[in-house]
Amino acid sequence: MSIDEPQHAPDDDVVFRTPVRRLQPPQVADEREALEGWLDYFRAQVVLALDGLPHRALRRRVPESGASLVGIVRLVTDLERTWLVERWGERGGRTPYPFSYVDDTDAPFRFSELDDPAALVGAYQEVCEKGRDALAGAESLDDAVRDDRRGHIELRWILLHLITETARRAGQAQALREFLMASEDPPPSR
Questions:
Q1: Cβ neighbours for 97, distance < 8 A, ≥ 6 positions apart
Q2: Residues 3-26: what's their mean pLDDT?
Q3: Mind telling me which SUPFAM superfamilies this protein's record contains (predicted)?
Q4: Cβ distance 43 to 76 under 8 Å?
Q5: Sign of the CA dihedral running 167, 108, 22, 158
Q6: pLDDT of res. 58
Q7: Mean pLDDT, to the nearest integer, of 66-70?
Q8: pLDDT at 170 over 90
Q9: What is the mean pLDDT of the chain?
């Protein structure tokens, strides 16, 4: 192999199978249950977009300088950790990131070609569980936490922010999935 040839992981042709089951958001619920239910729904949608695709497709940036499906998983992992685990759960504390970034301009979308999609999804699920634990300790959506940039932020705002950001990324992941499926020969089954 020459220096100019792209590096390929030994698992490039392995098809990813998601450990997440399809969810439906609650149709009848109080405000908090509805917000948490919609967040869980979009969390699952992000991971389900990876199901049935080979690892090489999950790592592919589309367009070539843009996002990848594993990059999206890293981004939503960082969102969850930042908002629910650190800002809400630890009231501003910092936890070490499982990913290391060299240049943070598009940090969440940068990854090693050898990153294991299952490990990235596992890290996301672990952070989501920590977020659920942090939410369980909240008495009310009106509870607030101090934020250096925004002042006081209510839990309601944090949940709405996470829902909108995760929904955006779920849509982006689905669009990438459709592009990647069309470019695979033959298209993988879901």
A1: 78, 81
A2: 68
A3: DinB/YfiT-like putative metalloenzymes
A4: yes
A5: negative
A6: 87
A7: 89
A8: yes
A9: 81
Instruction: Provide the H-helix boundaries in 21-136.
Output: 31-48, 55-59, 69-80, 117-136
CB atoms near residue 44 (< 10 Å): 20
Cα atoms in the Cβ-side hemisphere of radius 13 Å centred on 101: 14
* Separation between Cα atoms, residue 111 and residue 51, nearest integer Å: 19
Amino acid symbol at 46: V
> Roughly what angle, to the nearest 10 degrees, separates helices 69-80 and 155-183?
170
Going by pLDDT thresholds of 50, 70 and 90, the confidence category of residue 121 is very high
Nearest Cα to Cα of residue 65 among 105, 99, 115, 98 = 105
Q: Are 54 and 14 in contact (CB under 8 A)?
A: yes
Please report the pLDDT score of residue 32 as a whole number.
Answer: 96
Is residue 152 within a helix (H) or strand (E), and if so which, with residue range?
A: strand 151-154
Please enumerate in sequence order all residues whose Cβ is within 8 A of that of 51, keeping only pairs 6 or more positions apart, or say none: 16, 17, 18, 190
Q: Which amino acid is at 54?
A: P
- Give me the CATH topology for the region 51-182: Four Helix Bundle (Hemerythrin (Met), subunit A) (1.20.120)
Q: What tokens does 117 get?
A: 């999609």
- Look at residues 167, 148, 147 and name the one whose alpha carbon lies nearest to residue 157: 147
